[in-house]
Write a structure and sequence with these properties.
HTH_MarR-typ, 8% strand, 9 helices, 202 residues, 2 domains, single chain, 5 strands, two-stranded antiparallel ribbon, three-stranded antiparallel beta sheet, WH-like_DNA-bd_sf, WH_DNA-bd_sf, Arc Repressor Mutant, subunit A, mainly alpha
Amino acid sequence: MIEQVRHPGKGGGPSPPIMTDLTFPYLQLIAQLIAIMESKITEPAFNKAYLGKRLQDLMDLTHVQMQLVYEARGLDIPVEGSSTLQALGPNKALSLSDLARNLAQPHQLVAQRLNKLLKRGLIEKTPDLFDKRRSEYSLTPAGLEQWELLDQIMVDAGEANQDLFDEIGVDLIAALENATTTLKACGLHERILRQPKKEAQI
């Protein structure tokens, strides 16, 4: 246990706990554990192992930076709803299934993003006259204005991304598409499980 000593404060009341020398071995142990964890993450083997985390970190970073662009340009949608809004486009009426298929995303995810666009008044939902189970989504006048802003931003983003790819010497879009195709042919589970089992190192 960490020993705490209380001394009278001003006016006779208790002062905040004061940590004694017994505290420091615990703090040192915690610091050592944190250092070990951080060193493991930065080791090359662990960098390669945490592919999903690296991709998530990159996505989070680009979302934050793109949201700044949206705010500066007057685009009033979250970044994650961009592809859904752009997929609708002018003079289009698409169902949830149409959008999920076009975007290659789960129905539930697309439905959540459509609901956010509906709440912002950027799209409208119209029941199908011939199929009560089906509804179609289309842009409202306000949605069309936002779509036009988004369309131009995506043009600028494409150019900015190309500058980034040239700077780092890697076309990330091509690399990701190649990785996706390759993993579909032979998944991570197959690649990991076919390796000989190694004894854990402590």
